Amino acid sequence: EIVLTQSPATLSLSPGERATLSCRASQSVSNYLVWYQQKPGQAPRLLIYDVSTRATGIPARFSGSGSGTDFTLSISSLEPEDFAVYYCQQRNSWTWTFGQGTKVEIK
Amino acid sequence: QVQLVQSGAEVKKSGASVKVSCKTSGFTFTTHYIHWVRQAPGQGLEWMGIRGPNDDYTFYAQKFQGRVTMTRDTSTSTVYMELRGLTSEDTAVYYCAREYKSSSDYWGQGTLVSVSS
User: Fold this and answer.
1) For residues A11 and A34, what is the distance between their CA atoms, to the nearest angstrom?
2) How close is the nearest chain B Cα to the Cα of A34, in Å?
């Protein structure tokens, strides 16, 4: 099973600052790397799929990058509604795994 | 519009089974796979498995093999997830989610399953 390790566990930032979240895989995941945002009491929301493709309706301040085993989600300028937990997810054959999440909190 | 509407919260005793439904609408049921993901209180997301829309295809995470069954009813565009042998470790919110390019673009609202001894 491919293990995804996200860092940091918590990111304390102010609105307007840039956020950089990391997701590292235990082996190559090709292009099947996905990012979700989750707010308390809500289902996850798809942000990025195929490493860098924004889902429908996702603002341009969200971007994904990386390859092989190292991936990054960047939020160029944090808006108040961006403070949430972010998960990466990969697909290997028909098996999915998720990272443990990064919480982006208001500093 | 695309919707996945799940059944209501359940309270079960240890050793019991639970069956959660996920009724879909707004898209062609026979062209999309449906995933099940769960989230224990205060914890991260855990993938359980996937159900094909119009054949018998299923694939379960190794952790749940032998204890979970995912079925579908094409006539009502509904997918079901049954989990047997419940323990307190199975207390979680269970989500169904539509497959889209190796991700999930639409999710159900979640169903809380509480297991007590």
Assistant:
1) 19
2) 6
